[in-house]
Amino acid sequence: MFNTALRIVNRVQDAEDILQDSFTDAFMQIKSFENKSTFGAWLKQIVIFKSINFLKRRKLNFIDIDHFEDNTVEDETDEETIWYTVDLIRQAIQELPDGYRTVLSLYLFEGYDHEEIAGILKVGKSTARTQYIRAKQKLLTLLKIRNAHEQ
Q1: 54 shares a domain with 4
Q2: Which of 17, 29, 79, 139 is the one with CA 20 to 30 A from 35?
Q3: pLDDT by residue (tens digit) across 11-38?
Q4: Are residues 102 and 133 in the same domain?
């Protein structure tokens, strides 16, 4: 649960606070737990919502792509030829803007699909998908830059 919060908010102290608040909320709302999922899945959902709400309070804004014309061309990066250490990737993910890091974490690490992410973030499905594509492009760019500096 801590790692989930940390991947979204990107600061240890904030993740610790979110985790503590999440456990407190879970304890206070335990009567609403309906056994439709595991307790861990229910708690993880609380952690994710608390983490996203924390970012929103920090003025994280997602642009609704349904009402925005995007003229960017998808980068033709050959992902299979790029090999990096876990540490390098983790550092690059931490450098991503909050919105990109959140969508990337929810999709890659937490296993949510674009429709679920759209619901969590209260944006359109195409917005969630576009944010993921842009996050992935930005991550690959950061990794290429780091790789060039190491060589």
Answers
A1: yes
A2: 17
A3: 999 999 999 999 999 999 998 888 888 8
A4: yes
Residue 53 CA from chain centroid, whole number? 13
CA distances (Å), 100 to each of 51, 108, 124, 131, 149, in order? Answer: 14, 12, 15, 6, 23
Predicted structure pTM score: 0.66
Inter-residue contact 144 to 75 (CB < 8 Å): no
Q: Per-residue pLDDT tens for 88-112? A: 888 889 999 999 999 999 999 888 9
Nearest-5° Cα angle at 7, 6 to 13: 20
Q: How many residues does the chain have?
A: 151
**Distance between CA atoms of residues 87 and 92, nearest Å:** 9
Pair (47, 103) in one structural domain: no
